[in-house]
Amino acid sequence: MSGTSSFTSVPVVEISGLHSPDRAQREQVAREIGKAAGEVGFFYVSGAGVDDAVFERMLAATKEFFALPADEKMRYYIGLSKCHRGYVPQKYSLFPDRTVLSNIAFGPETEQLSAFGFWRPCERRKRAEIREEALSYLLRMGLHERDGGKYPDQLSGGMQQRVAIAQALITRPKFFPRRRRHH
Fold first, then answer.
1. Whole-Å CA distances, 37 to 59, 94, 134
2. What does the DSSP 8-state code read for residue 97?
3. Distance linking the first and last C-alpha atoms of the chain
4. Which of 16, 59, 72, 165 would bridge 47 by S-S if both were Cys, CB 3.0 to 4.6 A apart?
5. How far is CA 6 from CA 10, 18, 144, 150, 153, in A?
6. Is residue 104 one of the residues assigned to a domain?
7. With contact defined as beta carbons under 8 Å apart, do 176 and 140 qualify?
8. Model confidence pLDDT, tens digit, residues 140-174
9. What residues make up the domain containing 132?
């Protein structure tokens, strides 16, 4: 893969076909997963067939766990596991003194603008273009324009995570370089 393409929403992949006796259906789902992962880098899953009652119990247990103090959660830290399962503390690369929009725009602004460029009209235009692009990434992550003026501590952990994803994606990283297959 040479990089991700632009996207306007996170893809939803219906996976119930993975359990089909029909190989063509299973392969179709695999292609959809590959397309979503290759073009966007991540996706939502639907059709997993999890009973609502099971989901509600899992959600209640999750809320109970995350309400625990940090030192209690760290007893289940993934680094202590022999089978790579457990709690992974979330830490994002957001600057607490910058708004959400400034956090997303930080990489391109640092890369493309000079330190005192705000004095020059051409750099003011470029900054406006970068901010417009940052807003588009904010919206793609399912956040609202009004969230752009908030600071990280005013967001939920999940929202902070989406801002960190937007902050990374706006720099157009090459996530998974294409590997050569050995035959």
1. 26, 25, 22
2. T
3. 19
4. 16
5. 11, 27, 18, 25, 28
6. yes
7. no
8. 999 999 999 999 989 888 889 899 989 988 887 76
9. 100-169
Contact 12, 46 (CB under 8 A): yes
pTM of the predicted protein model: 0.50
- Within a domain: residue 91? no
- Residues 88-114 have pLDDT tens digits of 776 667 888 999 999 999 888 888 877
SS (H, E, C) 102-130: HHHHHHHHHHHCCCCHHHCHHHHHHHHHH
HEC assignment per residue over 27-85: HHHHHHHHHHHHHCCCCEEECCCCCHHHHHHHHHHHHHHHCCCHHHHHHHEHHHCCCCC
In this structure, are residues 86 and 78 in contact, taking their beta carbons and an 8 Å threshold? yes
Domains identified in the chain, total number: 2
DSSP 137: H
